Amino acid sequence: MRDVVEQLQRLGMSGYEAKAYVTLVGAGQPLNGYEVAKRSGVPRSTVYETLGKLVAKGAAYELREADDATDYLPLPPRSLLERMRREFDDSIEALESSLPAIVAPPEAHLIHSLKDAGALLARAEDVIAGARADLFLSVWPEEMKRLSPLVKRAVERGVETSLMHFGPAENPVGHLYEHRFSSPEEVSEGLGCRLLVVAADRRETLVGGFTGDTAWGVYTEDPAVVTMAVEYIRNDIALQIIADRVGHETMREFWADDPRLKRLRAGHGHPAALMRAAGLPAHPRVPPPGADRPGTR
Fold first, then answer.
1. Per-residue confidence at 129, pLDDT binned at 50, 70, 90?
2. Domains in the chain, number
3. One Pfam annotation, family name (predicted)?
4. What CATH number does the domain containing 23 carry?
5. In a domain, 42, yes or no
6. Which of 196, 204, 206, 208 is nearest to 223 (CA)?
7. CA-closest candidate to residue 216, choices 139, 149, 148, 118
8. pLDDT tens digit string along 52-76?
9. 86 in a domain, yes or no?
């Protein structure tokens, strides 16, 4: 019952209204105000006001008795949910046209810090759900489990989706490429984290990292950062396609022997350390380029 009450509150009912409605639904027969108060825990001093609000919303009906007493019946749950859905959809449709009209152009493109896994994944879901033209993702299986349903919906509504997935994907969606060169384990060791990058419509991007139970990241609509995020994913996908074409062993030899590539790979674990330093309130010492993270070889 507590969960139902909480969900009804999220859809606009007050706590007392939700408790009274659930009580009426569970009774199976008309109830008067006294019975509703007794069964629901709504104070007797406010129960008739609460029932009146339910009646005004169409969520309950009054039954007038011959002795002028009043009983109450609930609108059936299926009908209530359909009505709420229609009202919600109507409000969203109205706001889609009216709300953007009052938005002032930003004076600067801000960067929002995200300092825990819940906030990071919730913001990633927002970016994916808002995509209309194209979507770029670089993601690991751990995060893909939560994001996959929204990615699938994006593909279904015609969003051009390009996805770099670190390791085998249980349910491939869109244009998905498995990161096999280098191996996911080598990438994780080099970065020091599982990097998540999401970019939608060349308009907004989220970049974050996960290490164990810790997560940190940023969200921005800055065009320069968005472009860099998109190009990062595009280039990573291109590298996988080239490796498949020329052969992974040939690529591995070239990757290991070319001194220019060795120089670019310097800074083991440095990217994650920089993000961690930027994402936490304290300012931990960032290891210099080339220094290993503790516990790695």
1. very high
2. 2
3. TrmB
4. 1.10.10.10
5. yes
6. 204
7. 118
8. 999 999 999 999 876 778 999 999 9
9. yes
